[in-house]
Amino acid sequence: MTNKNIILFLCVCVFSGNDCRQFRMPSFIKPCKRDDPNINECLKKIFETLRPFTSKGMPEMQILPLDPMSVPSVTLNQGQGSVNFTALFTNLKGYGAKNYQVQKIIADLKKKSMEIDLYFPSFRIESKYEVNGQILLLPIKGNGKFVGNFTNIQTKVKIGLEYLEKKNNKTFIEIKENKVSLIIGAVKLRFNNLFNGNKELGDQTNRFINENWRDLMQEIKPLLEDTVATIVMGIFKPLLINFSMDDLFPI
């Protein structure tokens, strides 16, 4: 897929430099030993422990609330095939992250890799939108409120890690690469105020999109996966900046 451009600004407060070590691991989280033969199960338990905090966040670990998830702006540009459009989504709110289920975690710290399989029963997105172009060769143009409901979402996150030694002689983890794969069971979308409020054309377009959502998702899937990968990076980055390798995976 060519001519794709994803612009994502996350509301994440990230401290830079090496003077931001005032953060402490909560006592109820037991870090996994880096040589633990059962490190995968250990990490899975940590993810399960963190689930109740997705709504209120964890300031002591610099983790912001994820449900609702706030994203100021996402731009999707798709310029090839039967889907050719530019869409700007602003003031996004995402609901449903708190219900995630950890299906599998495979961590190999020696090979500097991690794979996380998550399942979301449902996820709802509300935002303002502006769109212009064609979706499955059907013209679409408008601006207003957007609502998207996604159900039975299988998410696979593959992360490549890098270890960097800072000037304080502590080793920190950075994400070198991050790839997300999505399988979505069902989708229902609604673009309000299409074609300057023409209800008949708007209803027809929304109906067409929802009747053909599988074809649409197939076309824009790489864009969605890149966007989710960027969100994942924004979630993990503050944690990795403020906690060393010894903090996260003690010897």
From TrEMBL:
GO terms for cellular component: extracellular space. Keywords: Biological rhythms, Signal. One of its GO terms (biological process) is circadian rhythm. Residues 1-20 form the signal peptide. It comes from the Eukaryota. PANTHER family: PROTEIN TAKEOUT-LIKE PROTEIN, RE70318P. Belongs to the TO family. This is Haemolymph juvenile hormone binding. It comes from Cinara cedri.
